[in-house]
Structure formats: C-alpha cells, structure tokens
Amino acid sequence: MHLKLSADSFFIERTFRMSNDYTFTVRGNYTLACWGEVFKYSVDDWKTIIDGMAEDEKNTIYFWLSGLFRSEKYPDSFFYPQTRLTDDDVREIITYCHCKGIKFYLGYGVFAWFGIDKVAEAYPETKAVECGGMCPSNELAGKINLEYGMEMLERYPEADGFFLEMRDEYGPCLCDKCQEQLDEYGSKRYGQSEISWLKEFTTELWKRKSDAEISVTIGYREKGSHTNDPMYYEAIKAMEDPRVWWMAVRDNYELPGAGGKSYPLSYFSRHMLHWQQYYSSTPQQIGEWIAKAHKTGAIGACPAFEPGFNSYSFYSYDVPFPVNTLPYRVTRFAFQQYCKNPQLSFDEFKGRLLGAFFEPGADPIYADDMLYLAELIQTACGDRSALLSRAWKAGWFREWAAKAAQEPADEKMTVDVWRTMDNAITMFRDLEEKSSRHLAEISSRLPRLRNGGGKNATTADMIERAIVDTYRELMFGPENTEILQQAQCNAKCNITEEAG
Ligand SMILES: [Zn+2]
pTM for the complete prediction? Predict the structure, then answer.
C-alpha cells in the first residue's frame, strides 16, 4: 500500500510503486500536456489518463508544465491561455498520482521550449545565437531558468522532483563562448555551461527540498549538439547521486566518454532510463527496444505519451485520449510485459495478451486479431507523406477528400495538399485492398467472442470499435469509391499542372 490514513491527514509514502515482478524498476510516461487539444484536459481527464498508467503499474510521470505553468515572475511564459488546469488542479493531480503509487515530476524545458522561448523575447540578450531558445552560457538566461523552476517548486511543493528537458533538440547555441572547443575530440563550452547550470539547479533545489529528484534528458545529436562531446558525458558521470536520473533519448545505447570512445549507458550512471515514442512501435519493436536498453544498462523507461503531438491512432484530438482503444491498449500492455521481462519471447507475449484480455480457453486467433488491427491503424496513421499533420484529427481525411473531389477546387488546396491527398488515397485504398478480407473475417468472429461474456465481451467491443473507426476514418467500403476516384483524379491533374 502507498497510502496511510491518519486521523486528520493523508501521509503519502513517497516511494516508487515497487514490485519484484519488474526487471525495469522505473516505468512511466513522459507526458506532454501541450500540443493539439491536450492543454484543454481537465483534472478529471488527467485522472482518466493516470488511471490507465496505474493499471499498467507505471510508477512515474514526467508532467510537462512549460507554457502551462502560471508563473508570476515570468508571466510571458504562460503560453497556452486556454489551459484548463489551475494551480489547485495541478496539486490535485499530484495527490491523485501519489494515491496511485506514481511519482510526479514537474517537467519543463531548460533554455528552450514554449514558455522559455516567450521569455527570451522579453530578454533578447539571453537568446541563443543562430538557433532558438536561450544561450546556456548567458548568466541572465541561467538565472531566469533557475527562478522559473524554483517558482514551480514553491507552487507545487508536494511534487517529487523535476523532469528537465535540456534545450539540445534546438541544436547548440553558436555564440563564441558556447563554441569554445575544450579538447581534441570536439567537446565544447556549450555542454559544460549546461552542466554548470544543472549543478546550480540541484544546489538550489536540495536547499529547499533535500530529497527531491531530477531526471534529465541526454543524448541529443541535433545539429551535433552533443555528438562529439565526451567532456559533457564525463561530467554527467561525475554527478552520480541517488537523486539524479538520466534519460537517454534518440535511440542512444552508447555515448561518448573518456578518450572519445563509446561506452554503454551503464558506464555513465546506475540511474539510466530510456525514452522512445513507443506508440509508434509494434509489440515486437517494444520488446527489442527494452531488451537493448536493459542490456546496455538502463533500469527503466519513460516513453512518450503525447497524443496532441502524435499517437499513431485516430484519436489524437479526442479529449481525453481514449487509452483503452487500439492500438494504444496493445502498446501499453506490451510495455508493461517487456518491463517485467525484457527477454520475453513474442509467443510468450501473445500468450500473456490472450490471458489478459480474454476468458480462459479463448481461441488464440483473437489475440492475433487484436495485434493485426493495432498494426493496421499504426500503419495508416504513421506515414507522414499521406498525412496533413502528424496528429490524426478524426474526420480529416473525409473532409479533405470531399474538398478534393469538388469542382472548382477549394482555394485551400495548395499543391502540397494535393500531393498529400494523392498519397493518402493511394495508401488507404491499398490498405483496404490488403485488409478488407481479413477485417471481414475478424468481424465474423466477434459475435461468438461477445457471447463468451466477461473479458471476451469487453475485448469484442474494443475490436469492433477499431474496425468501425478504420472503415470510417480511412473511407473503406464501396460507397466511398466514387468520391475517392474523383478526388484522386483532381489531385493528379493539379499536381501535373503545377509541374508543367
Ligand atoms: Zn551561447
């Protein structure tokens, strides 16, 4: 139990939900509460999401607050005025997480991202050179980023610590100071400035809350931010502390260290976590990822939950994101099972899937049906060349196909939109041709499954919804043939005209 009741108050045991069942001890979600419609989520919406995490026995949430935090010190940083969450709401979410055995980290972007970029506009002297965000070697920039975090802690003292996303995805600052080369391998002052800031941050943090933890993203290679920066990673190694965690991003399983050589994650810290956009992966890929991260020294993972950015499903704009629909339900389950045992074979995984979602004795073909549908939807929603935006907004394809079929053409139909529509129609028609027989077979098995009652009936509903939504969102079925043919014909004409 994580909750102890006393006469007049709750005492929350501030420990991870620990279980011997798991090889990966830290399991959570890097949770982007921005993008799309996600900043409109209410407390209850978040509780629904957190319930799903608790069901998966996740024990950590990195809750992104940049731009959503109502800073009084730097009001320019409040980037999403439609944010529904008040300070009391955030506190309620933190308490809710604690009751569920989930640690809550306050997440923000350091030297970059939404809130901080806005503040940089008000303090132009802090701006990084030839890229966005702030310069980590700039003293005022350091002070602002520190104060922003400390104000957050003051507002939400019950949080367990901080998740710090360093600015590196923007690429390195190219000012003379940041670009000073420090060794023969290419280490730069840029990295050392970030490390100095982190040390200052932990000093201030631990003065206020001695047991607070931090988790910091590392491993970015964007524009060479830390590609050849062994001094940066050696400094990380030297920061070993039970309260400090590192999260390797960008498929890094080795990083550069002493002598410019590559070392596995375990060389740098005992507290290594790994990050992936796991919603884009099949269960096999999730298994391969966790096995590799485990082998190189990671002891946990916090993959991305960021439906407003992308979800590889039809539901990115649903509020809240339906965590019990396909494909995400399979993603969640695969993550949980491979965190228990990174060596799990795929057949064993399928057996566990069958056991978890169906009544005893169910035909294994039903587990295959779930996996087939999950992968079909991920495929449809994952090809950028056939999408107008990363995050699928329900009904977008139907809406734009209707526009594309019109004569004369809608003025919003630029050549890029024509190309995307042409690609999308080709791809979704092709998927229909390949899958329609299989989908019909799956549908024909549903009545028998539903009759089984219990978990069988619940899972039958999930499978049915996936089929119905696939038909609707991808415009499968003969009733759509004419409009899609007309839309594609117009697309091809307009693309050819443009080329001519
Ligand atoms: Zn700089």
Answer: 0.94
